[in-house]
# Entry
Amino acid sequence: MSEWTSAPLEDLATITSGGTPSRVAEEFWNGDIPWVTPSDITSCRTKFLHYTKEKITAKGLASSSATLLPRGSLLFTSRATIGEIKIAVDPVATNQGFKSLSPKPDVDGLYLFFQVERLKNEFVRFGAGSTFLEINRKDTGRVEIPYPVDRSVQTKIANILQTIDQAIEKTEALIKKYGLIKAGMMHDLFTRGLTPDGKQRPPRHQAPELYKKTPIGWIPKEWECEAIETVKNSLVDGPFGSNLKTKHYVVDPGVRVVRLQNIETGRYNDLDRAFVSDRHALLLHRNRVDGGDILIAGLGEERHPVARACLYPRSLPAAINKADCFRLRCDESKMINAFVVHFLNTAAARKQVRRYEQGVTRPRINLGNMNRLLIPKPTLDEQNRIVEKMASLVRTMELESAKCEKLYHQKSGLMQDLLTGKVPVKVDEPEAAHV
# Structure
């Protein structure tokens, strides 16, 4: 069994701050030295940093407190967002929002990366500042890092964790690919549809006689184009004003309340729960939400567009919808709820919604304008075929997402076991033995 010890971070790596050349001097910028800012770190999707938005010249480097860091340096953010970390693929310089780490010869760089990642909260607790949090060089260096004395054991542990990271990256790439496939499929299904044999109609440029122009674009000539108002059974907003406020919430058991954070694009998020008493829910019977109902967000934000939609799961008990959360039930003789959800999440529907949006900071759409939104209306049989086609892809994506979540959980457990010495590692055993 390998001997373990611990040491302050400053004993394991050289800690380097960054700097910014003068913006006034043009000769300091647009050179060939990558210059890293925290935004480069947060936008990087892997642990290895390949790209920076800006570059500086050798003169710019010499004029500032920035330092040229060697390849393999750990770029550790120390300001505003503390503890984000990436590995430099090439020699780079950073701005002053970093306390970068250059591992010493007896320390495996990838091993140190995983330790710093695991101990992020230890660094954050040293953060100070009134405008934004920042950790200084002294406090960065004092965080205690456990490690096996034998460098080959450090490398073995790093390789095990890298193996599971690669599995995560591969799964995330697959999920992203399916997302692109889904976007393309949604466009095709809502402009070309599916014939009884399960095939899409030929594209319009090949068979223009199969299509007609409508206010929402070209659609198959057999389809109709109707407003939500004409195909709904009911469409209601949440309770007005004082009829439902935070003070009405109770601890489970009670009746669920559907809120904006529950409505994601095509998916109901059941992690954030709120309840009201059965008695209060009876007063709001008009706002009842049943399994299979459509939920639409009447309010948007940066990452969550207004009018995003999902189905309320049939596995959940009846609920009520809050203000800015519309509940839509379609006339079953005209439209299938799942078909409408898929369409509302397409780019074509988003384009319509933007015409009706109100508000600057957080766009919203009101009940009257929701009723005006136009929806393509194939036959119920064709709607069913489209829904089934989408459901098959969604199921595949959900399986990959569940796999990814399982890998993250596995990595968390491995980091705790391997980076503390709780589970011993033999240098000659395969990485897969721990994954």
Summary: The first helix runs from residue 9 to 12. The radius of gyration is 28 Å. The longest strand covers residues 29-36.
